[in-house]
Amino acid sequence: SAGPPRCAHGRNRQRRFSLECARCAGRGQHDPLWPRRHLYQCQPQEFRDNVMEDVRFAVHYMYTDDSAVIGNVSRNNSVGFAIMYTNRLKILNNVSEGDRDHGLLLNYANSSIITGNRVVGRMQPIERWLEAGLQKGEHGVPGEEKVEASAGETARLGPEKCVFIYNANKNKFSENSFENCSIGIHFTAGSEGNAMSGNSFINNRNQVKYVGTRNLDWSVDGRGNYWSDNPAFDLDGDGIADSPYRPNDLIDRVLWTVPQAKILINSPAVDTIRWAQTQFPALLPGGVVDSHPLMKPLLKPTAQLKESKHND
């Protein structure tokens, strides 16, 4: 179809939106639509079955309570779904595929239901980071000082974080699938009060990043999450692993605080520390533990990777 794609942009508390079955495509940072794909201070609304490609944000919500984001597809964007300063949303059955920084970002977003979504990462050209001119705190949350490429680095796994949770609480994550990201979920700034159950963490380099010291159980009513790197057994065949799962250990914390220590990752000293933690659990740091990890991932995630029906 001719003409530029239509995308919602609201700045009036009295306006209501229901945007459905639209396709929005841009050409990157210099596209005229680049900074304008967001909803701001709007009344309850629904954002359903849209496809957003090659722009900065697929969906950017701010100060927009009691709304729904359902069945949308974000592909090759900087951030898939950015939910900020917003409460009581339903974020259901959306797909983020090949976005650069975050598939889903929650910043001061509370009391929402996040169910049936899928974030899938893949290797991407390093130019996506180097040519973007990223600044610290690019998306309203703390970020790296600057983006640099290692010698010979031509590609990088993105999104860097399937999900980034910053000062967001009382949210319920269930039946989501987070796959092939550098980090499955990174949560910080007092974001310990979220419920996690029935989610699948598949082939992320780090399944979880949490540098706090509190012990957090990521299971609800005896049902935890699936972790692709969990080597546990299920001897009684109930679908729940026979031992708890911890995504992080003391070595992970050292690497997060002192990245230069990665040159020692294969040393006998590191192997000894990790062995000691398995024998003496008291040595384990505080952090996430899944007391009822699932043995199988979601067989059929609600959100599917598919070509949009709105393709021209």
Automatic annotation (TrEMBL):
Residues 46-243 form the Carbohydrate-binding/sugar hydrolysis domain. InterPro entries: Carb-bd_sugar_hydrolysis-dom (IPR006633), NosD_dom (IPR007742), PbH1 (IPR006626), Pectin_lyas_fold (IPR012334), Pectin_lyase_fold/virulence (IPR011050). It comes from the Bacteria. SUPFAM superfamilies: Pectin lyase-like (SSF51126). This is Periplasmic copper-binding protein. It comes from Brucella pinnipedialis M292/94/1.
